[in-house]
């Protein structure tokens, strides 16, 4: 809180000025293979229920397995109050707490809709980039999917209005993150870099104009299954 200021010629100080409201940020929070893939080859809608196809299920597990035992993740998905704590859990909890709205692509939505429980794991408004016209889909627990037909700029405008003082997460997939990187609006990249090599799949850093946005390393936390790096705009 800003301290009170005594006006000249007055015995009574002015009331303290309110602290400025936080400025919401646009960020991406993703897992990434060592060779730069967000998803392995074969992880498609056509093979969603065939995790043995090209071993995409095992590869995905190697990429994202670090998050499954975390206490904050288990609480967020209503899986119980047990789980691992420590620096990695603290990072995950801080990420969950900061999100006021999510933006994702139609492919990510279609895949998730086949796997998410009735209480989808977002608990915020979610803006889905799509050409499909559809009424909002309200789920238990505060998640409401809104289907945006007017492009990424409009989705971001709606997400900012919904998030209030919280941040906007660009959830994915890779193409959607690329679009917002190309727009120059992504202010932070939180990457969980797993020591696995996919060789093929969906790369993150493609289709970005040259020169692309520049970032600097803000924080590195090493975990047993991934190294967590936060990059902020330079």
List low-pLDDT spans: none
CATH class bucket: Alpha Beta
- Radius of gyration from the CA trace? 20 Å
Helix content: 10-25%
DSSP strand content: 25-35%
Strand order of the largest sheet: 5-6-4-3-7-1-8-11-10
CATH homologous superfamily assignment:
Dihydrofolate Reductase, subunit A
Shape: globular
Number of helices: 6
Largest sheet entry: 9 strands, mixed
Work out the count of structural domains. 1
Cα end-to-end separation: 29 Å
The total strand number stands at 11
Order of helices and strands: EEHHHEHEEEHEHEEEE
- Looking at CATH, which topology would you report? Dihydrofolate Reductase, subunit A
CATH architecture: 3-Layer(aba) Sandwich
Would you tell me the structural class of the helices and strands?
Answer: alpha/beta
Structural commentary:
The protein has a single domain, classed as Dihydrofolate Reductase, subunit A. Helix content is 24%, strand content 26%. It is built from 6 helices and 11 strands. The strands form 2 sheets. It has a 9-stranded mixed beta sheet with strand order 5-6-4-3-7-1-8-11-10, with helices on both faces. The mean pLDDT is 92.
In short:
With 234 residues, the chain is α/β, with parallel strands linked by helices. The chain has helices at residues 56-64, 71-76, 87-98, 106-113, 152-163, 174-183; strands spanning 26-33, 37-40, 99-105, 125-129, 137-138, 144-148, 167-172, 188-194, 201-203, 215-222, 227-233.
